[in-house]
Amino acid sequence: MYNRDKSVNRAWYDPVGWAGLDKVPPPTEALKAILEQRADIISRCGALRAEIDDKSRRLKKLGTELAAIRDRSHLDTPYEEGAGRVAELSGELDRLRSRLATDEAVSESLEEYAERLRAGERDPARAHISRAHRPASEDELRVSRVAEGWAAISVSLMIISFVGIAMFEREHLISMLVFSIAFFAFVEAGFRGRLVNLVSSANIGLAVVATLIIIYEFFWQLVVAAVLVVGLYVLWDNVRELRR
Predict the structure, then answer these.
(1) CA 29 to chain centre
(2) How far apart, in whole angstroms, are the C-alpha atoms of residue 149 and residue 165?
(3) What predicted TM-score, i.e. pTM, was given to this entire model?
């Protein structure tokens, strides 16, 4: 009835939602729900088409206006403003068309789903479950026991290894400490199923360190290169202005 934090367990006050059935209509209402949802989508598609047509006409008008003032140097400001409006309107049209295509595909899927229901087909009883709980296999239980054993001895092994390194490998103290820490981290991540995340994080960290080293070693060369790039860009921009 209660969770460990003393709150009421959802399985007690909302068993249908806890089981994932709150999003599944009863078989007697499924077809009606599908048809209503499809009708809503069809209505939305009509509104989207009207909006797309309106904005397409506006975009064409703006395009013709830009074409008329493109080579007029005294109309650079209106041209740049118009180009900005064209880019913005083109982006809106792209999003609207993408949404329309998605809605049309969903509408077709709903129609096919309704036909299957009319034909007497039904979804699997467990189709609504996204994370089904299954009994642990023998391999999983075996790995779990090994992981529990490692958890019991890992801290002690780490302390013993640190003491051994400090006593017998003082000339390689830093490298051995790094190696031992990396070894324990990889083993721990492997047992926890986070080895891929650990490798990705290590790669990112090494890349950041390498970048900082490169910046430190070639700082002035990078500054000169940046200044050169800025100068070339300014030169190119000035030449472009002269040619307009």
Answers:
(1) 35
(2) 24
(3) 0.50
